[in-house]
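Quick question about two entries, pasted in order.
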Amino acid sequence: MTVIGMYKNIIKSIILIILVCSSVILTYQIWNFKPQLTNVDNLVEEKTTIGPRFVDNIKNIYMPFQLVSYKEGDMKGTTDSNLIMELTNDLSENKILSAYLLDNNGKFQAKDIGKDYILFDFTEDIPQTMYITNILEMTYKSNDKYTFNRILVDSESFETITLYFVGKDKVLKIETDAKSDHFNQLVKNQREKMTDYSSLVTNVHTSSDKTQLYMPAQADDVKAYRFIADRIDVKDINDAVLDDQDNIIQRDREEGTTYFSNTGIVSVDANDIYKYNNLSETDLLKSAPRDTLVKSFKFISSHGGFTDDYRLFDIDDDSRTINYQMFLSGRPVFNSEGLSDISVVWGKDEEYEYRRGLLSTSVAVPSTQEVEKLPSAEKVRFDIASSRNYQLEKVNKMMIGYEMAKSPDSEIQANLLFEPYWYVEYDGTWMKYDKGRLK
């Protein structure tokens, strides 16, 4: 029995020694453990950007071009981005109490609205559901495809705010829980910073005070600007857009440069226009542009593509193109070569085409210069209405914008000149008003 007990004690000692050694080894391994991060690195790998990453606010990109405060006999308005955004934010993240569609028939009256209201004007027809959910951040579920280009805000008739999304065929009326008093106080503070506005009736669709065209009454204080041009590096865009960086072939020609890769083709012409086509998408499977607005925003924003103040400006249903246009001091910028535009065509799953100007004002120092004073809105209206070459009923919108021109390449440092003009959307096409003519 003594021998057996001795063996048991020896076995217990051996087991105890093994357990102690195992504990020491495990403790050492835990202290010195280094995880394998290969997969994590691949997931968070970031591409080159051409501007700041993820700083774009979707509300800025889909901002209206003007805000109008309507009071009978006293119309005020503004294109100031900060003022517009302040009221947009106040309307956001509120609860929808009720929502229903009204027939427009081109003559929306909304007789139950008082004589004081706010208008937000947009240059393009925007899907109602997309704007309400993504911009105003309200919970709204609908499968309708109706669009709008004006929001009418009634904050006078009731204690809470009612919104009217005015479209060509339908008007969506939304009653919210947003308090009218707070919104009205913001408007009261803002009106001191607004300018006098006038209205214009051009056809039966603009015969109501709810549907008339509104624009600044005077434009003689609008200045011109000159910026030093900052050219975006083509390699930076290629690094952000083209997936296969190791197999890019560059071919230089007199008319420009072409880059070929296994995933896409890029062309850069002599006018500083960059165009990318995705080889994985086909021309036959273009998505409806209004269904891909958020996708197009995320694509451009993901590589810092909104290098200046850009906003949705135009949608071409025939070519299925979404066009974002540069704004300066709250006013749209036009350029005949497309230098002030960013356009996207979406395919079945990804972007099919991406086109943009390569010049930016993001690091420029502006300087003002004297220009010829612009005529009044009434003068523009009179010239169009009295001309044999034009029909006033074909005027859909009027606004003040800038024509952007690039200085000759012979200069040491290229400059961008922004000169103000009246712009008229005539028969569906934006045209510059210059001394009685539309060009």
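Here is the second entry:
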Amino acid sequence: MDLHDHLRVVRQRWWVVLATVMVALGVAGFLTVRAEPKYTASVTFFVTTPSRGLGDAYQGGLFLQQRVKSYVDLLTSDRLAQDVAAANPIGLAAGEVQSRVSANVQMDTVLLTATITDTDKGRALRLAEAVAASFIPLVERIETPPGDDNPPVKLEVVSGPRVNPDPVSPQPTRTFLLAGLIGLVLGVGLSVLRGRADTTIHDGETLHRVTTSPLLGQVPFDQSARLSPLIVKSAATSARAEALRKLRTNLRFVDVQEPAGVIAVTSAVQGEGKSTTACNLAIVLAEAGWRVLLIDADLRRPRVANYLGMPTGIGLTDVLIGEAEINDAVRPWGDRSLLVLPAGSIPPNPSELLGSKGMADLLLSLRESADIIIIDTAPLLAVTDGVVVAVQADGALLVTRAGKTSRTQVAAATQALSSVAARLLGCVLNMAKVPPSEAYQYEAYRVTGPTARSVQGGNRPSRSTSHAVQGTGLEAEPPRGQIDVLATRVVDQPTQELTRIPR
């Protein structure tokens, strides 16, 4: 993954970054509230040595700069802590005194500062005074050679003891800034790690890259689609309906030289919305005046009849085994030029039935009866039914659900189609997340009332008008009459080899 991919992953999982920052700020706030304020008191010593002349002063200065570094450790030593605890009744033991004292020396100077940190402001000041009173005689005793009354060094207090009136901790501003920065870094890191571990497809660019086929449409996620899967009535003006109309336009022009008259709609796994996509695609094609035949070839879990509100009854299976006529099985739907062939009875051998010569002959005969045939098939990775149907169609449309299907599954589905030389027309990203800017643009521009009469079946404009059907981008063709489904009794004749039926 390059930088662009990392940024895209972080943008998609912005909530992870926000949640991490909020947790970090919450922890910082909790610790700040629970923390006990601490105060500091300080005292500064100036270290000198007796000198005679400039040469002695220079050598003495170098000596003291080296010597004063050892006084830092002496200020925090056990010996000084014991002297302070014994000489000054402040209620602290030697270990408690030692834990409160720190020291530092200013660079290239002979100034030594002792800092006392305590939760009690007054006790910190008294402890600083006790340290100043005990440290000077301690240094003089240590530095004075045996038998000599004059120590070679001398310490003087030049600043303090004084206490800082403001607590040094907690510091809410610094704490919250640091916590926010840490939360931001952790959030970005978690987002990137989650993105690298998440192999599901979330955007159309990734889907196009995995399938190496055109991205024909991105159908946005619609909460109401669970209860109203079809784009009819109020749903006909939704963003989902507009995305399906774009899919209709892109699908009709995906290959002008070899247009697809029979399209198999499939997916890698179940639950990706292929059946609803097939139904809605048939609806929008019929909306534009095309004569459409929708076939439910998912003979294991048929859904088309349920979505369209039609009785199951006889259907494709009954026609293929010769128990029903095609005229009896095909039913019109709505007031559009849309006919539906349900799945019918669920057979024990769906793959063999769909791969039979009877299925091939049926599709060949139906090509002249409709402008476009949409076939809903079974998922490609679950069973072989989808591949069997796709190889007999003019092309397949692969539907992928955003955030559910993995790259591996999509790649395997693509490979399943290419292994039998089935033509993959393109892919559709279903339940995609639409940027707020795009959703706002559609809501601001969409038609909220009836502005034009929809073109219904049998009333398609003539090619001589030389214009596209309004709002579809589809060029009109001359009328071909009412749909006349052939009453052909097709008998099941399984074949050993899958062959593609030319138009």
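Reply: Residues 24 and 30 are 10 Å apart (CA to CA). The chain has three domains: 3-35+171-197, 39-163, 242-430. Hope that helps.
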